[in-house]
Design brief:
This protein has a domain of about 220 residues: Spore Coat Polysaccharide Biosynthesis Protein SpsA, Chain A (Alpha-Beta Complex). The protein is built from 10 helices and 17 strands. A 4-stranded mixed β-sheet has the order 2-1-3-8. The longest helix is centred in the first third of the chain and has 64 residues. The chain is globular. The N and C termini lie far apart (about 110 Å). The N terminus and C terminus are likely disordered. Bound molecules: 2-acetamido-2-deoxy-beta-D-glucopyranose (3 copies). One 2-acetamido-2-deoxy-beta-D-glucopyranose binds next to helix 5. InterPro entries: BC10-like, Glyco_trans_14. It comes from Salix suchowensis. This is Core-2/I-branching beta-1,6-N-acetylglucosaminyltransferase family protein. Pfam families: Branch (PF02485).
Length: about 375
Amino acid sequence: MKQRKSTHQKSVYYYNQWKKRKIFVMLSLLLLTGSCFVLTLNSTTTSTTTSRILTLASLRSHFVVQKPKIAFLFIARNRLPLDMLWDAFFKGQESRLSIFVHSRPGFLFNKANTRSEYFLNRQVNDSTQVDWGEATMIEAERILLRHALVDPLNERFVFLSDSCIPLYNFSYTYDYIMSTSTSFVDSFADTKEGRYNPKMAPLVPVNNWRKGSQWVVLTRKHAEVVVNDTTVFPMFQQHCKRRSLPEFWRDHPIPADTSMEHNCIPDEHYVQTLLAREGLEGEITRRSLTHSSWDLSSSKDPERRGWHPVTYKFSDATPMLIQSIKDIDNIYYETEYRREWCSSKGKPSRCFLFARKFTRPAAFRLLDMSVLGSLRKATNKS
Ligand SMILES: *[C@@H]1O[C@H](CO)[C@@H](O)[C@H](O)[C@H]1NC(C)=O
Ligand SMILES: *[C@@H]1O[C@H](CO)[C@@H](O)[C@H](O)[C@H]1NC(C)=O
Ligand SMILES: *[C@@H]1O[C@H](CO)[C@@H](O)[C@H](O)[C@H]1NC(C)=O
């Protein structure tokens, strides 16, 4: 009995001990979980705070210290003859711009052939031989965009030729482009000319076929769409072959029998058609910011006869010419009976920020006459 009692007592004791231990273990478990919870809580709050600080820092670096940039993408045959004009335009604005140059493979910008430091070490290293009027021009555009997209601060992408000039100072240009969330793409239905190759259907349907100037300004999203495109570009490569035209057709008089040609002029259809096909036309302002003058008259100068862009020479480069380009406030699209009244920030505005084509002497004359806003002043200041 004693034995049993003691056994019983013992077992009761053990039971109690066990119970106590259980409670202890449970309590400690609870405590442990609790503290773990608190710890996790603590660490999450810490990490949230940290990440919040980081986000704030990156936000600050994005929006305060580092401003959104405009990428200026130059497509040149060789060097940039108007480099000094752009030098004056860029001066003092380094934090708001980046520059990329596509020139013929093998041509290297150096101090001997460029007078502006802005263009040194700005060449893309994988440039392609551009044959005017072939899909290689589009490839050059895509190469430039690919390079420029690497910098997340680049928010707009402006294509420029080696004969383009800026019409205003940098601040005005920057505000004009950044004040809207749209791209600027000259784009209109191209029903007349029969440049569409029916072999592109159904991947590129004819109702998406658009025409317009290649000198576009793209948002980051649209730049990505162009770089990501694996459908429309191969169609252009395959079906847009230049036939007998020795050069970019607009730079030359129209041949007597155009029906012999099947050249879709890829660079004047690609971006427009791609954006239409992707259903993104609601995100573009359908006009170019770059003025070209198309000479349709029968000029006495045989070099200027036919439909091709006018090249302004030294004697043409007057304040009146620049003012007449700046004064344009609407563009008429004949094929669509559409008149595009230009506006910026919701107010009527000038249409063009850039103009082509200018020779080097013409551009220098404009720079000397301070015709292009305060470009000259900006140069003198520094
Ligand atoms: C171009 O430069 C980049 C970055 O420096 C490099 O990764 C790439 O291999 C180069 N491409 C060519 C074709 O040289
Ligand atoms: C830039 O040009 C605009 C428009 O021509 C002018 O109003 C503005 O004062 C100029 N800004 C500078 C910094 O010169
Ligand atoms: C383009 O492709 C990249 C990489 O696949 C992707 O991150 C990006 O969202 C794409 N952009 C668009 C606009 O489709």
